[in-house]
Amino acid sequence: MKEDSPYYLSVLPTEIVVYIFTYLPAKELIRCRQVCLRFKQIVDDLTRRDALWREYCKKNYPTVYKIAQYKSKPDLLWYNIFKSLTLWPKIADAREDWDEFASASSVNEKISNFEILRDGVIGVHKRGGIVYYDIETLQRARRETITGDYMKYKENDDTIVIQSYHLQLYIIRKIIQNPRLETNVTFDNIKTFILEDQEIYYVTLNDDIYVCRLENLSTELLERSDDSIMSLGYCQSRLHVLTVQRHIYTYNGKKLVFTCLLGPDRNLLNLLYKYSFLDTVDWKLYNQWMYVLNRYSPEGPLRDIITVRVYGEVVFVGSNWGVLRIYYSPFTNEELDLYNSEPIKQYNFTERSDCPVLSMCPIVQIDVSESEDGHMVIVAMPKKIAVLSFTHNFKRTASVAMLP
Predict the structure, then answer these.
(1) Which of 139, 150, 265, 292 is deepest in the core (most CB within 10 A)?
(2) Which helix (H) or strand (E) holds 133?
(3) For the F-box domain, which residue ranges apply (predicted)?
(4) How far apart are CA 1 and CA 7, in angstroms?
(5) Treating both helix axes as pointing N-terminal to C-terminal, what angle do 37-46 and 14-21 enclose, rounded to 10 degrees?
């Protein structure tokens, strides 16, 4: 048999074939299932190797693979996460199902935001406290409610962070590794903060920027700003600061360094995306900036943006009137360009009973949870949380069903 014959792999030991297959791109690996029964069995076994598919996710979806795994349905393999991320370009052809939960029946149940946590739990921030739900059943979870009226809420595996209307910041550690260390801490006169893994960055009313390290709840003053700070962003291991004066600064480990100005000749949305301010910017102020800079804002939902969520190549835009738009890859010359892009999906969540005279139904938050062969898009409004479930059906070859 010639060495360059395509059949020489059939006589190689399985261990060597597996080793060779692990160097193939993901889609080429799945195509190998069609060669013969032996290759099919080898590839099927490789789909259960989490470490391999985690590397595929990291290579193909570097900006979103960690958060996709953290917020995915419980017990989902990395192979399934890779497959779901690969399916987003085909969302226009997916089957849709709608559902709702956490409906507000009184003013005390008004919804502000939510957090998708690990193991299929959703923490919903209502006016009366933090209520936890099961992501599978959309029913109340066994976890106890945190009662109280709070302005802002964030949570991860280790920490709960709550800001009161009196501008007090409460940091509560859920996991105590050393009983000698403090379990919680409170800071006063805090106007904004962000939670990033094991650190919390916060800004006082005097525009002093601090970091609180969650390992031991120690704090450090990073910098004092002469400008009035509006938002914090964090990306590429750097802290970014957006001021009311439209200045963007970056903390380089020693001091704040001026980065750019949101001026009339710049793509404002792209800069907010580039420096991770989309989740924290004040959109009312953004619209004022657009007016002051004589920038064009089209009629319709994009004139009343209230939330923008970028998830890899997918961009979700929510308006003040309950309109959700889903875009896929709305980029021009590698810049976010919503105004010249068309959505692949659009929904209007405003109900007739809500709208005798066009009453507002703002979309306050959008997030995603990946599932097997599909996606769950969760949309929060003051009165309810809507769930859009997209499921992909495969009618072609087995390899397409494995990985389109």
Answers:
(1) 150
(2) strand 129-134
(3) 6-56
(4) 8
(5) 60
Report for 103-107, 302-306, 311-315: range of highest mean pLDDT: 311-315
- How is residue 14 written in tokens? 């399985």
Given a cut of 50, is residue 357 above it in pLDDT?
no
CA-to-CA separations, 105 to 108, 278, 341, 359, in angstroms, rounded: 8, 30, 37, 17
**Residue 203 corresponds to which tokens in the numbers above?**
């800004």
Using alpha carbons only, how large is the chain's radius of gyration in Å?
Answer: 24
| Dihedral over alpha carbons 127, 129, 135, 139 (to 10 degrees) | -90
Cross-strand bridge partners of residue 317: 308, 325
220: part of which helix (H) or strand (E)? strand 218-224
Q: What is the pTM of this model?
A: 0.89
Say which amino acid occupies 103: S
The secondary structure of residue 140, as a DSSP letter, is B
Distance between CA atoms of residues 255 and 273, nearest Å: 23
Q: Which residues contact 157 (CB under 8 A, 6 or more apart)?
A: 117, 118, 174, 175
For 306-315, what is the mean pLDDT? 94
For residues 11, 14, 20, 25, the Cα torsion angle rounded to the nearest 10 degrees is 110
| Burial (CB count <10 Å: 0-12, 13-18, 19+), residue 369 | buried
| SS3 track for 51-100 | HHHHHHHHHHCCCCHHHHHHCCCCCCCHHHHHHHHHHHHHHHHCEEEEEE
User: So what's the pLDDT on residue 243?
Assistant: 95
Using CA atoms, how far residue 295 sits from 84, 248, 315, in Å, is 37, 19, 21
Residues 351-363 have a mean pLDDT of 62
When pLDDT is cut at 50, 70 and 90, the band that residue 181 belongs to is low
Task: Find out whether 243 and 200 touch, Cβ atoms under 8 Å.
Answer: no
CA distance linking residue 155 with residue 295, whole number of Å: 36
Structure tokens given for 173? 């550690």
Average pLDDT estimate for 36-40: 82
